[in-house]
Amino acid sequence: MALKSLKVRLIGIVGKPHGVKGELTARLLTDYPKSIKKGDFLFLDEKCTKKVKIENINVSKFKGYIRAVFKFESIDNRDRAEELREMPLYRSAKTAPKLKADEFWADDIVACKVYSSDGGFVGTVIEVLKYASNDSLVIKKGDRSINIIGANEDVFLVPFIESYVEKVDTKDKKIALKKIPEYI
Question: Which of 20, 63, 70, 140 is most enclosed, with most CB atoms within 10 A?
C-alpha cells in the first residue's frame, strides 16, 4: 500500500523545544498516550510525506492536559526542533489502538450533523476541543439550522457529556442532542 493512501489519526500538536538536544514538547490529543512508544513512526502531515521516528518519549499531565516530551531521530539540536513547532502529529490508523463497539475517535465526529431532541437541525461539528474536565463539540450553525435563542454567533460549544449528547452515529455522521446548553 502506498503511503499516500494511508489513513492517519491526529494525535497531537508539536510545541516548543525542550532543552538543547533536539527534544520538543507536544500537546497530545489522544486518550491513549501509552500506546505511543519508542521506535514508532509518526507523520508531520496528513499525506504521510514527512515521517519521524520516536527515539524517546516521556508522557506526563500538565495543567490538566496530556503532554509529552519527544526526541525524534535526526532532530539533534534546538534549532531543528524549533522548525517543527506548531506542526500536527499523526499516526497511522493501522497502529492506533482498537476501540470497543461504543467508542470512536474525535476526528470521526468532525463533520457530523447535529440535531436537537425534536429532530431540528442545529449545525455541523467543525472541531472537538479537549479540556481537562470534558471534551466539547464546536458546532457551526447551518443555513437551515433551528433558531437558538441567544446564539448570535455562527459557532458555539456543546459539552460532550451524557447530559447533553444522546447518540453519536459515526457511520451516518449524525449526533442527537438531549438538550441545547442553557447558556446558548
Answer: 70
Q: Cβ–Cβ contacts within 10 Å for residue 28, how many? A: 19
CB 85 within 8 A of CB 14: yes
Residues of the chain with CATH 2.40.30.60: 3-95
What is the grid cell recorded at 6?
A: 494511508
Q: Bridge partners of 72?
A: 54
Handedness of CA 119, 121, 122, 127 (dihedral sign): positive
pTM over 0.70: no
Q: What's the mean pLDDT in 45-68?
A: 88
Structural contact between residues 9 and 28, judged by C-beta atoms closer than 8 angstroms = no
Asked if residue 148 lies in contact with residue 180, where contact means CB atoms within 8 angstroms, the answer is yes
The domain defined by 106-177 folds into: SH3 type barrels. (2.30.30)
Query: In this predicted model, what pLDDT tens digit does every residue of 136-155 receive, in sequence order?
Result: 999 998 765 555 545 556 88
With a cut of 70, say whether residue 184 has pLDDT above it.
no
Residue 121 pairs in a beta bridge with 115
Radius of gyration, alpha carbons of the chain: 19
Residue 30, CB half-sphere, CA atoms under 13 Å: how many? 24
User: What's phi and psi for 58, nearest 5 deg?
Assistant: -130, 115
